[in-house]
Amino acid sequence: xxxxxxxxxxxxxxxxxxxxxxxxxxxxxxxxxxxxxxxxxxxxxxxxxxxxxxxxxxxxxxxxxxxxxxxxxxxxxxxxxxxxxxxxxxxxxxxxxxxxxxxxxxxxxxxxxxxxxxxxxxxxxxxxxxxxxxxxxxxxxxxxxxxxxxxxxxxxxxxxxxxxxxxxxxxxxxxxxxxxxxxxxxxxxxxxxxxxxxxxxxxxxxxxxxxxxxxxxxxxxxxxxxxxxxxxxxxxxxxxxxxxxxxxxxxxxxxxxxxxxxxxxxxxxxxxxxxxxxxxxxxxxxxxxxxxxxxxxx
Length: 298
Prior knowledge:
The chain is an all-alpha fold. The protein has one domain (2-287). It is built from 13 helices and no strands. The chain has helices at 2-32, 38-60, 69-90, 95-102, 105-117, 123-140, 152-172, 181-202, 211-234, 240-247, 249-260, 268-283, 290-294. Helix 1 crosses helix 10, helix 2 (38-60) packs antiparallel against helix 8 (181-202) and helix 5 (105-117) runs parallel beside helix 7. The longest helix is centred in the N-terminal third of the chain and has 31 residues, at 2-32. The radius of gyration is 18 Å and the shape is globular.
């Protein structure tokens, strides 16, 4: 039983570390977005990620299990599409709005976890998701109007949220074989492969001829890569919806960056919403059972 509790602690440590790194990355990307568009960064992030995984694999001798290739491919594709959607949304709507919409994925992952992985959802988790969702709504909902002025980017962000929920639920199927490395490699591969087709589809120019700009993009990609590997690794120990509830702390980082760095307004409702998100992240953690912790998926 003690090793289960240790695994649970590892899972929570990883899950709480990722939002901080994501917040740093999101603020940096918002600053750089005028020069490095979302699809250019998608290419840089993919190439940087594959290079990092290659170095780690050479140093450790790590190899992916063949029986997991299908799951890895599907998870990588879903995650790359999520990144393309969210990074596009960040360049158009306020940073905290894009991040809030992304963190609808815990609620979506509850449904997908039950449908795909047959994971049981407890009452505390449902309450936690409801509280986190309420906090997200308050953060996005402005004081000066009756509702949120929806733009195409808001729907793009919702699509990114759905893709990320699917990615997390699929990675959860890897069970004890998941170290975060190979799901991230699959994600990076699809980022690199999808950048040019998406750019051609939407008429966007890929900035691959500006070395200094690409170097800055690669530096940001290292931060994002570390955050993503940590998130994927946490899914070895915790269900997707739990990682998502804790990950909603990234919303607070986005809100603070919106106010301090970008001088975007943050009404009193947003402050209350932030408090609810904190309560959801720290207050709703059901004990992990042997079945939860040692479950391996086929």
